[in-house]
Amino acid sequence: MEIGKLKNLGVLDISNNLLSGELPSSLGSCESLEFLHMQGNFFLGHIPSSMKELRGIRDLDLSRNNLSGNIPQFFERLGNLENLNLSFNQFWGAVPTGGVFKNGSVTSVAGNTRLCGGIANLRLPVCMSNESKGGWLSRRMRLIIPLVSGFTLLGLAMVLSFFLLRKKRKESELNTFGNSVLQVSYATLLKATDGFSSANLIGLGAFGSVYKGILAEDSVTVAVKVFNMLHRGASKSFISEYEALRNIRHRNLVKILTACSSIDFSGNDFKALVYEFMDGGSLAEWLHPSSGNEEVTEAPKLLSLVQRLDIAIDVASALDYLHNQCETPIVHCDLKPSNVLLDKELTAHVSDFGLARFLSEPTNNVSINQSSSIGIRGSVGYAAPEYGMGSEVSTYGDVYSFGILLLEMFTGKRPTDHMFSDGLNLHNYVKTTLPERVSQISESLVLQEGTANVTEARSQLSVTAQKIEECLTLIFGIGIACSAESSTNRKDISDAATELHSIRGNLLG
After folding, report:
1. Which of 59, 245, 318, 477 could crosslink 83 through cysteines, CB 3.0-4.6 Å?
2. Band of residue 134 on the pLDDT scale cut at 50, 70, 90
3. Where does the chain cross the membrane (predicted)?
4. In terms of domains, do 252 and 340 share one?
5. Is the Cβ–Cβ distance between 350 and 391 less than 8 Å?
6. Are residue 309 and residue 365 in the same domain, yes or no?
7. How is the beta sheet containing 66-69 ordered, strand by strand?
8. Is residue 161 part of a domain?
9. 82 CB contacts (<8 Å, ≥6 apart)?
């Protein structure tokens, strides 16, 4: 609402974001506003009457939202208005014909299916008049009633067939999920997240937003991933993630509870996935707490050497399951710290399968993906170098991402750090310093607190700094082997998991 205090604001462009709610009535107080672009958001409700005070407005774009109601008549009286775009909303009723509406080339109302009237250039249907003659109406009704009856019967048959088919599909999906599935609707998710409020927003991704929610009936805390259907590829990402997770189970994979594919109250497509809520937040928030959300967990953002090693083993185990133990191998394609979630016990769960791919054949070799051969295959710094040259996805790509993740966990440096330029990257940075300078490249936290934190729970035996450095050398060696530039030279993920288990055993004696 504070936007109204900007009396001298001339241009406001907040287009193509994820903004929602009603348009603030205080906009009318922006007396100097000439250009107002709010298109491509999720605004709803009526256009506030206060906007009639925008006497100097020249360019107004409210397209691609969920605004509704009649188009206000006061737009006709805004003499400076040169361009008005109200397309693709939910407006209804008659379109004004005065002022800016006289010129069809500067006014757009396309995509509002319940509008009528306006100038001829808009090609809208004529608004129905209430002054129709009784005889004319009678003749029309004699023609319409049989047609309506026929279409009604046909429509009922189609609806019945649709629901029978839908019920059959849903029963099949329920059998796939098992008895633990939660059945939810759009209205249920809306209530659980308090209207998808910003207070419950816990993450933003390439294809949507993640909200914390509480399902009222069972008081179950969940994470709701809502896909931004305006984003190109969001629908495919929804299907990929759902298909990848619905039939697999592993303690180190995030657990999907159900999927919601419906329409919202404005008639727009709505797709969401519902997951178990992870109290510990993401690994990225622990590795780089200064840039994360400090309120995700009450625990301090501090990971000991053993905790980091346990998380690395969890991630390696999850990849080993996806690559070697599923009936059809699955490639994650976007492994990075923000896609590794931690529960209360700091057990790691690999998440976000929006870019996941099924390999056409059960092999670790580079494989053609039948569903998609072009597109993003990971995030900058974590994506395998061969992907940048057009190679198809393979399990080797995930191994590369895991190697970079492992090096980041124990050096504290992101692969996108400013220090990595002119041919220097995280892989080379670590490789050229082993084994002599392990203490210099290691996360200072690991070495400084290693002796205090790395203890066997039963015997309370402390670990010497020398033993810690030996273990770090081996861990860095695995990270380097996994992130080799050539895919054929990379370590197999099952071998990496086995070696990390061995290192942990040796560390704790």
Report:
1. 59
2. very low
3. 143-165
4. no
5. no
6. yes
7. 20-22, 42-45, 66-69, 90-95, 114-117
8. no
9. 58, 59, 100, 106
Q: Phi and psi at residue 466, in whole multiples of 5°? A: -65, -40
Give yes or no: residues 257 and 376 share one domain: no
Lowest-confidence pick of 138-147, 277-286, 471-480: 138-147
Beta pairing partners, 274 = 224, 258
Separation CA 262–CA 412 (nearest Å): 42
- CA 121/CA 137 separation, integer angstroms: 29
Query: Quick one: tokens of 401?
Result: 């991402």
Long-range contacts of 285-293 (CB under 8 A, 24+ apart): 286/342, 287/337, 287/408, 287/409, 287/412, 288/337, 288/412, 288/414, 293/202
Read out DSSP for 109-146?
-TT-TEEEES-GGG-PPPPPPS---HHHHHHHHHHHHH
User: Which residues constitute the domain of residue 308?
Assistant: 282-507
Q: Are residues 260 and 294 in the same domain?
A: no
The answer on 306 and 260 residing in a single domain is: no
pLDDT of residue 440: 77
Using a cut of 0.70, tell me whether the model's pTM lies above it: no
- Tokens coding 477: 């060696």
Amino acid at 416: T
> Is 225 marked as binding a ligand?
yes
DSSP 241-252: HHHHHHT---TT
Active site residues: 334
- Choosing from 107, 122, 137, the residue where a domain stops is 122
